[in-house]
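User: Predict the full complex structure for these chains.
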Amino acid sequence: MPPLSVPLAELVPHRPPMLWLDHLVEYSPDQGRTIGVVAAKHLFAEASGMLHPSASIELVAQTAAAHEGYQRRLEDKGVGGGFLVGVRDFVFWGAPECGDTIEVVARRRWSVGPVSVVSGQVTGSCGLLAEGELSFYLDDRAVPEAMQPRPQQIGDGTRQRSVGVSCGDIMGGIIIGENRDAGRAELFFERTCPVFCGHFPSFPLLPAVVSVRICMELLARWESDLEVPRVLHAKFGEAIQPPVTITVGSAPQIVEAQQRRRFWLQVDDNKAADIAFEVRQRSTARPGEGDQR
Amino acid sequence: MVRASTEQGVNAVLSREFEIDEANLVPTANLYEDLELDSLDAVDLVAALERQFQMKIDRHKDEETIRQMRTLADVYGFVDTKLGEKTSQSG
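Assistant: Here is the predicted structure of the two-chain assembly.
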């Protein structure tokens, strides 16, 4: 059998700058494997030349989407719809480096109705970078009711104008209000933010991974002595469409001696995401050190 | 008869991961109406139980059982059965 090498763009609806992998190189009904070279001008690139660690979540998600897309191709179906709706126990051992070739594996584990659980691993030239579990809503007929954009969550930008001064930005989202002591912030995303060009051209939607990154970056702004080795749990319930103002809240938690930070994202009165991170004092140790792998 | 340790382990996950008051964790509690979980939470619950009890969900065998779970007693029963399978396989 000839080796498989299918361009990802043929299998998934993502487009640059949100198309992060090059080819699907292995397929079985339970597993897909992709490879890609990390672009120098990657949307998640940081000054260090590494990607923000949260990028690995999207890499597994795109591999799972490519696996699903190839399966649909074998069944003579077009590219289907799928949404990342959950993250569980996703550990960051490192971060992808610009210019490096990475390999990503996604294994379809089990499903309940349209929700599938996938486990994945991201590997770079220096070894395992991240691993964890994701949940997807997969359905080629219709998106679930809970994810249908609601009229009231589509902002018109008036709040941005009323709040006024920007105090920074995250992924093109302007921070229009911030209270570090209360752990709260407001961000405004225009339709023209680069992230929406590729996710998706005909249906702009804030990628779940951007929600994760927003929270991690706010945590870094507010408590720079902390780092995030692991996303314990994330649930994405509402579609976020631009232009939109997102309110972010956070609170510390200690559960069974584990330090956590809980974040939630709201659009108007609708909770769009709920994310819990394991946190610890920043050190020079490798992320996840001391854990069993 | 479900083992007490199974009930305690399931309740611990629901209390820790889903912040559900332990007083509400009774076998007759409906996952969706009484404990206010949704379908995504149900998937997360099974994933969390898989880790807590180090059991393996069988894609072909267990999916229908998971789909049918409605009450906490159903969850206790499912986990207990999986643990029994694990014990018999290792023994």
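Residues 169 and 279 of chain A are 23 Å apart (CA to CA).
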